[in-house]
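--- STAGE predict ---
source: upstream dedup step, 1 unique chain passed
mode: sequence only
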Amino acid sequence: MESKRQQKFSRLIQKELAEIFQREVPHLFSGAFISVSIVRVSPDLGLARTYLSVMNSKTSNEMLLQELRANTKTIRHLLAQRIKSQVRVVPELVFYLDDSAEYAANIDKLFSNIDIPPAPEEDEDDDTYTR
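--- STAGE serialize ---
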């Protein structure tokens, strides 16, 4: 259970990182659209686990994740410039791919492939409930 402080801090980081990915560094990721799904912050606010959704990527998601991790220092520096007056310490950033949309699509696909036979019709003359 996150504290209110952690929740506020994670929302701030999520908002600022989203703006950074969309406005300041889209050239680093060859035009891929990166959105920040959720940010989980450690209790000491020193580590921010950031889950990202990627669309329109020309490379595989794993290659993009490696590129993200290679540019973590630059992204953290841009984040620091934006939030330095609001926080004491800029957290370390760890990026993960958020695969919840793919997971949901896979579950929907599984449900659509299920063949459920219709229920057998009951006879009106059947007196199974006799008193």
